[in-house]
Known about the structure:
Elements: H1 16-28, H2 30-41, H3 49-54, H4 71-79, E1 86-87, H5 104-115, H6 130-141, H7 146-149, E2 153-159, H8 160-175, E3 180-185, H9 190-198, E4 201-206, E5 208-209, E6 214-215, H10 217-225, E7 232-236, H11 249-262, E8 265-270, H12 280-292, E9 297-302, E10 314-320, H13 324-338, H14 348-357, H15 360-391, H16 399-402, E11 407-409, H17 414-424, E12 426-427, E13 433-435, H18 444-457
Parallel strand pairs: 1-12, 3-4, 3-7, 7-8, 8-9
Antiparallel strand pairs: 2-10, 5-6, 9-10, 11-13
Helix pairs in contact: 1-2, 5-14, 5-15, 6-14, 8-9, 8-13, 10-11, 11-12, 15-18, 17-18
Amino acid sequence: MRGTQFSLSGTHSSTPSERRISSVTRHLVPELSSSLSMASQNPNLVPSQTAAFYGDSVFGNIVQAPEDPILGVTVAYNKDPSPIKLNLGVGAYRTEEGKPLVLNVVRKAEQLIVNDLSRVKEYLPITGLADFNKSSAKLIFGADSPSIQEKRVVTVQCLSGTGSLRVGAEFLARHYHQRLIYIPQPTWGNHPKVFTIAGLSVKTYRYYDPSTRGLNFQGLLDDLGSAPSGAIVLLHACAHNPTGVDPTLEQWEQIRQLMRSKGLLPFFDSAYQGFASGNLDADAKPVRMFVADGGECLAAQSYAKNMGLYGERVGALSIVCKTADVAIRVESQLKLVIRPMYSSPPIHGASIVATILNDRNMYHEWTIELKAMADRIISMRQQLFDALRARGTPGDWSHIIKQIGMFTFTGLNTEQVAFMTKEYHIYMTSDGRISMAGLSSRTVPHLTDAIHAAVTRVA
C-alpha cells in the first residue's frame, strides 16, 4: 500500500480495490463524497472533514455542570489570592503547619516494596490482593471474629470507600430482594449519588437535631421502625460525616435490636476507623455488635484517612453471610460486578496496607501515628471551643467538643458561611461543616474572629 494514493471522490480510482473503497465511501457518506468531488474540481475549496460530518460540536448542547459542593470549596480557595485564606472544606488531614502528611510507617512500607525486586506489576485478581483482603476483614471485624473463622466473610479490594460503596450497591441492586436504601439526613454528599446510580431507591431517616446539634435518636428509631421489612440501611461506623455526631454504644444496641427485628440489612460505611477516637477497636465496636449476633451485613472500608492514602484509592468491601457456602456464591457474583466496572484494582496502595497490617512492629508504629493524628484533631476542638468561650461568642458551642472525628457541624447557616468567606477568606461547605484537621493553633484565632463576627452580625 505504501505510496498508493486513494481518492474518496472516485475521480482517480484505477484499481478494483480502490474502486470498491470509493463505492463504499460514496454509499456511506454521500455528503463528504460530494464535497470532496467539488474540492477536486476547485482546489481552493477544501472543507473540514469534521465540519462535513458534524458541523458544530456534537457536544455543543451540553450545559456547564456545577462544581461538586465539597471539591468546589477547594477550587474557590485556590483562586483566592488572600494571604490569610483558610480552607476548612477539604476532607484530608493537615499538620499543625497546614501541610499534607505522609505517615512515616507508610514511607517505610513503600521503601520495602520498592526494594523487593521480586515484586512485579502483573494484574491482581478481580477480587484484589489476598493479604490485603484478609487483613482488612480482621481489622474491622476483629481477628478472632467467628464470622472470619467460619469463612462467612467475603472481602474484595475496591477503589477506596467510594468504590467499595458502589460495588456493594450494584451487587445489592442485582441480587437483593429489596432495592430501597435508607441513608441518614444529613449524610456525605456522595452517598445518594452512589446508591442512585447503582440502581437503588434512596430514602432518608432522621439523624441530626439542629436544635441540640446532636443526635435525633427518637426520630431515627421512628423512621427505621416504619421502614419496610428488608430495606437496606446505611450506617456510619464512626465519626459521622458531616455532623461528627455518633450514637452511644447503648443507642447502637437499640438500633441493632430494631433493625434485626425488622429484617433491615445494615450497610456500614467505615471511613474513619481509628481516626475518630485514636483506637481502632473502639471505632469498630458498632460494626462488631452487628456481626456478633450472627446476622448478615455489608461494610465498606477506606484507608484514605487512617493511613493517609488518599490518592492511592485503597478500600475494601466485606459482606458477612450466614454460611460459608453462601459466601462462596456471593464472591462469584461480586466478581461479575467488578469485572466490567474496572476489571481489577491497583496493586501499590493495597501492598502498602498489607505490609503494615501484617508486620507487628509496623502495625504498632501505625497505631501510634494514627493516635497522634486523632489527638491533634481533638486538641483543635478544645482550642476552638475555649477561644469562642473566651471571646464571649453568643451561643452554646459545647457541641464542638462533644462531636467526634474530622468534621464539626458548626450550626452556622448559609448566609453566615458566605459572610465568613467574603470577609475573612475562610472556606467551608455551605452547610457549616468544617474540617477540624484543617485548623492549627495559629489559625484558631482567625476562625474565632470570623465565627464571632458572623454570629453577631449576620442573622
